[in-house]
Specification:
By secondary structure, the chain is α+β, with helices and mostly antiparallel strands. It contains five helices and four strands. A hairpin with a 2-residue loop joins strand 2 and strand 3.
Length: 153
């Protein structure tokens, strides 16, 4: 739309189904490039992507022409299909239902980029569930504990 100017920065987090550590270092960069392509092809701009074998963090500049839920659905469905078509994991790969999404101002972007780049370091101190709960509380997001991502039993 003409004369529409926005600055929307989203930090999205989503996990592998059952929090299994399926994302291998040998193909992690290729997965990140694939997800980056999905973001770009939908008119958004990737700022940083990273994570661990069981979850992914993505920081991107979002254009308002598409809803966040539509982008996340497309990103998760397409990347799951890509992983399955390439047979990168035994059995069927899927992402856990849902995601977390948090908005940041421009002055906070460098800090979030560094946070995503240092995922391995952060997770030496706390697990994914603790990290996720901390973000939900920090952003004052109401949640039902039974729907929070949990480690597989």
């Amino acid at each position: 739309m003409a004369n529409t100017y926005t600055q929307i920065h989203i930090h999205a987090i989503f996990a592998v189904q059952n929090r299994l550590s399926l994302i291998q270092k040998s193909w992690q960069d290729e997965l990140y490039k694939y997800i980056t392509g999905i973001i770009a092809n939908n008119g958004h701009k990737l700022l940083q992507i990273g994570g661990l074998p069981d979850h992914v963090h993505i920081l991107f500049g979002m254009k308002p022409a598409q809803s966040l839920s539509d982008l996340m659905k497309k990103m998760k469905e397409s990347s799951s299909s890509w992983i399955n078509q390439k047979r990168l994991v035994p059995g069927r790969f899927s992402w856990q239902e849902g995601y977390g999404a948090f908005s940041y101002g421009k002055s906070q972007i460098n800090r979030v980029v560094k946070y995503i780049q240092r995922q391995e370091y952060h997770h030496k101190k706390r697990n994914f569930e603790e990290e996720y709960l901390e973000l939900l509380k920090l952003f004052d997001i109401e949640f039902d504990k039974k729907y929070i991502l949990r480690n597989p039993e």
